[in-house]
From TrEMBL, chain A:
This is Uncharacterized membrane protein YjgN (DUF898 family). The lineage of its organism: Bacteria, Pseudomonadati, Pseudomonadota, Alphaproteobacteria, Hyphomicrobiales. Pfam families: DUF898 (PF05987). The chain crosses the membrane at residues 30-50, 77-101, 108-126, 202-227, 259-281, 316-338, 350-373. It comes from Methylorubrum thiocyanatum. It comes from the Bacteria. Keywords: Membrane, Transmembrane, Transmembrane helix. InterPro entries: DUF898.
TrEMBL record, chain B:
This is Zn-dependent protease with chaperone function. CDD domains: M48C_Oma1_like. GO terms for cellular component: membrane. Residues 359-373 have a biased composition (Basic and acidic residues). Residues 159-332 form the Peptidase M48 domain. Belongs to the peptidase M48 family. Residues 353-373 are annotated as: Disordered. Its cofactor is Zn(2+). GO terms for biological process: proteolysis involved in protein catabolic process. Residues 6-79 form the DUF7092 domain.
Length: 429, 373
């Protein structure tokens, strides 16, 4: 990897590469240690595990010859989590008690808490990004993020509402709007990044996804509606008369009407579309990442991405094959254990051995898939994005000056962890 | 000391501009460039993570750093700088692990011992109105857990059951008059819920041979109501599951563990409560003029049937071993009293018809649908 020859020549290159060392020495150790320690510490160690993972990925991502640096610590994340817990636990308890005690509010409690937690989740995502940005350093310059988490949560909520009302057509515009908000509030030192991401630039991949994956289901539902003149009889689904208080069933009175056939069409369309949708997600993700990277710039310097969708498929394919192989190995081990159970189930010693080895096998399976996932999917996706991205007009970055802004506190990410939104590593910005 | 030099890049921490420099390592590290001259003590150098050919060192104070790719230079630097790998933030891993284990164990102990103890104290303090409300919510949940069995409301049978309930409750220390409902279900079981709600599943009526046996089952549930066991177990289950899900992260399918833990804990708790409810049932049935030992007979019959055909919701019934219970019930009940038992033959016949066979779905098809939604 020539990019590593980090000494800039007297006439600096116009473009800078982003490289990621895919050999990933020592990564398995981090994952195994993180998993086992999380297990014995009631998963409190996960904050240190996440920190180790990030430090590993950041430091091996070499941007224009200089590796990035992650400055966060596990302790910060843990404290942030504790504070978020102190905020969320009373909220959860109130929701729980209200749900139990008041049947009228109980029916409302579920949607209200869903909406509330969704908005809070968006807020937490934005604040978590702020923490990560302020813990990232490159060439001695800290990144940062300003902007308001509440404004972002409001923006995201409104856009989601619009997306739902437009039956999903507004989705790419929402993605672009949120991307612009995120990037426009990202700072490298004192310099602000800018994004010119537009919904139009990802409209095509989205429409492809939409037409294949969502449209058949939507159309069949619309056809169902149209067949009734947009007047679905209120008794289409009835309570099963066989028992007094029961689930809804399809009213047998409508068995021979168009409802049955259109209803079947909805089911068939959904069963074809959903697997196709899963297959198309990497394609859309890749195209979106490329479009958004190409739209990001910092002053005169801008990113260019030549990411191909197949680079997003290969990791998942390899991962699937690896998991299948892994399951085969586990199956063989299990098959060796079976005779023991069959021959002498009464012997307490063998019984204990079988239980212990089953538990070990279970833990081993989870650990194995974790390692495979990080090593194959995360590493390859990260590498795919990094290796296909270049910085154009690199010398413009030299003008970036460090900021005197205080780095964001660890409290920013605690909420995201407590709400279980956002991951340890997010590919892309 | 032999001087080693290499080419590198210097960053001042103020600007992102890379400055080509020459690094010269003696007993100090000299950084020499066009407009940079630094002379760093080797004690102040810290290495920070970087991809392997690149080595990045920074000064312990200040934001200045230098990067280079010379492996031999890196080795020499490592050999000469004692504190190169010192990381202020690391350390105390063992302490962290031990403290987390201690914290986790303490929460677990609280969940296993503290929560039941606390619920013993809290349960009697819960206001009647709230308990009634809670009972309603729990009933909805349990009913849907059982697969929405229909309510059995055959009038004559209801009247007999209500009279039986009133006779059993009479003179016993009950916080409120229990509300008994019957639901059609193929599992022989009865449940007591907060707010004095008692659900009889129709199969237990079918399995009962005499009115006394049914009375024994009913009185046993009243015994739970009298002890406020349902309230207590709701508080315990809620508290434990909350604590356990707090402790266990989301790394290893913890929801399963939470459920198992809860079931195990509440089973340990119920055994004493079951014995108390048995004793209560014997007293109540005897007072009402029935045979207290009849409960033992029906318990044994149900258990035998269950052994043949284990059902999915057996976890709802966490009763101690039946033989032991039956023996205890018989010794408490003593001699079988004279007389026909708690219910007359006609009453017993009528109770058995509480769950008439359902009308065929087709019959109600035209009439039922619209108004039910």
């Amino acid at each position: 990897m020539n990019q590593f020859d980090g000494v800039p020549s007297p006439a600096p290159a116009r473009t800078g590469d982003i490289a990621f060392d895919r050999r990933t020495q020592g990564l398995t150790g981090i994952v195994v240690k993180g998993f086992l320690l999380s297990l014995v510490t009631f998963s409190i160690y996960r904050f240190w595990y996440i920190t180790n993972l990030r430090r590993y990925f950041w430091s091996r991502t070499v941007v224009a010859g200089s590796p990035a640096e992650y400055l966060g610590t596990g302790k910060e994340l843990f404290l942030g989590f504790l504070v978020a817990l102190a905020v969320l636990v009373p909220v959860y308890i109130v929701l729980f008690v209200v749900g139990l005690l008041s049947p009228i509010l109980a029916t409302l409690a579920a949607p209200i808490s869903f909406i509330g937690l969704f908005v809070l989740g968006q807020y937490a995502l934005f604040r978590g990004r702020r923490y990560r940005a302020s813990r990232t350093r490159w060439r001695g310059i800290r990144l940062g993020q300003d902007g308001s988490g509440f404004a972002y949560a409001g923006l995201a909520s409104l856009w989601w509402l619009g997306t739902i009302l437009s039956l999903g057509l507004a989705f790419p515009f929402m993605r672009a709007a949120l991307e612009r908000y995120r990037i426009d509030h990202t700072l490298v030192g004192q310099s602000r990044m800018r994004s010119t991401a537009t919904g139009r630039s990802i409209l095509l991949p989205w429409m492809m996804f939409y037409i294949v994956a969502l449209l058949p289901t939507l159309l069949s539902i619309l056809a169902l509606l149209a067949a009734t003149g947009f007047d679905i009889p209120s008794d289409l689904l009835i309570q099963d008369p066989a028992n007094e208080k029961s689930n809804l069933i399809f009213n047998p009175a409508y068995e021979d009407t168009p409802f049955a056939s259109y209803g079947a069409a909805v089911v068939i369309a959904a069963s074809v579309s959903i697997p196709l949708a899963l297959l198309l997600i990497p394609y859309y993700r890749a195209r979106e990442t490329r479009a958004f990277f190409n739209a990001a710039h910092l002053g005169e310097a801008r990113l260019t991405s030549s990411l191909k969708a197949r680079r997003f498929y290969v990791p998942y394919l390899v991962y699937m094959l690896a998991v299948i192989g892994f399951i085969l190995v586990l199956g063989i081990i299990f098959a060796l254990l079976v005779p023991l159970i069959a021959t002498d189930g009464q012997n307490p010693g063998i019984h204990a051995f079988v239980i212990a080895s089953t538990v070990l096998l279970y833990l081993g399976a989870i650990l194995g898939t974790n390692v495979l996932y990080v090593r194959i999917v995360t590493v390859r996706l990260w590498h795919a994005v990094a290796a296909t991205t270049q910085i154009e007009n690199l010398p413009a970055l030299e003008a970036v000056l460090a900021s005197t802004r205080a780095p964001a506190s660890g409290l920013n990410e605690g909420l995201a962890d407590a709400l279980d939104v956002g991951g340890a590593l997010e590919i892309g910005f | 000391m032999e001087a080693i030099t290499t080419a590198g890049t210097f960053f001042d921490g103020i600007s992102a501009r890379p400055r080509p420099v020459t690094l010269r390592l003696t007993f100090r590290l000299e950084i020499l460039g066009e407009d940079v001259t630094r002379d760093w003590s080797l004690l102040d150098l810290r290495a920070t993570d970087a991809a392997s050919p690149v080595m990045r060192i920074s000064h312990a104070q200040g934001a200045e750093s230098a990067e280079f790719t010379d492996a031999a230079f890196a080795e020499a630097l490592k050999a000469r700088c004692p504190d190169l790998g010192r990381a202020e933030r690391e350390g105390g891993l063992t302490r962290l692990v031990l403290w987390s284990i201690a914290a986790g164990v303490s929460v677990l102990l609280t969940a296993i011992y503290g929560v039941p103890a606390a619920s013993n104290l809290i349960a009697p303090l819960v206001p009647r109105a709230i308990e009634a409300q809670l009972g309603r919510s729990v009933e909805t949940q349990i009913v849907s857990l059982l697969g929405d069995p229909p309510l059995c409301d055959e009038n004559a049978a209801r009247a007999v059951l209500d009279r039986l309930a009133a006779r059993l409750a009479e003179g016993m220390a009950l916080p409120e008059r229990p509300q008994v409902s019957v639901r059609r279900h193929t599992v022989a079981n009865a449940l007591a819920l907060p707010g004095g709600r008692v659900i009889l599943l129709s199969d237990i009526i079918a399995k009962a041979r005499t009115g006394d046996e049914l009375a024994g089952i009913l009185a046993h549930e009243f015994g739970h109501v009298a002890a406020r066991d349902p309230m207590r177990s709701v508080i315990t289950a809620g508290g434990t599951s909350f604590l356990l899900s707090l402790v266990l992260g989301d790394l290893t399918g913890s929801t399963v563990l939470v459920t198992i833990g809860q079931a195990a804990i509440s089973a340990g708790y119920s055994r004493d409560a079951e014995r108390a409810a048995d004793a209560y049932a014997v007293t109540a049935v005897k007072r009402a003029g029935g045979d207290g030992a009849a409960l033992a007979a029906i318990l044994e019959r149900i258990t035998k049937a269950d052994d043949e055909k284990p059902d999915a919701i057996a976890f709802l019934r966490s009763h101690p071993f039946t033989a032991e219970r039956a023996a205890r019930i018989r010794s408490l009940a003593g001699e079988k009293p004279a007389g026909s038992g708690i219910l007359s033959e006609a009453e017993w016949q009528s109770v058995q018809g509480v769950c008439p066979k359902p009308a065929k779905p087709d019959d109600g098809k035209k009439a039922a649908p619209t108004e039910k939604l």
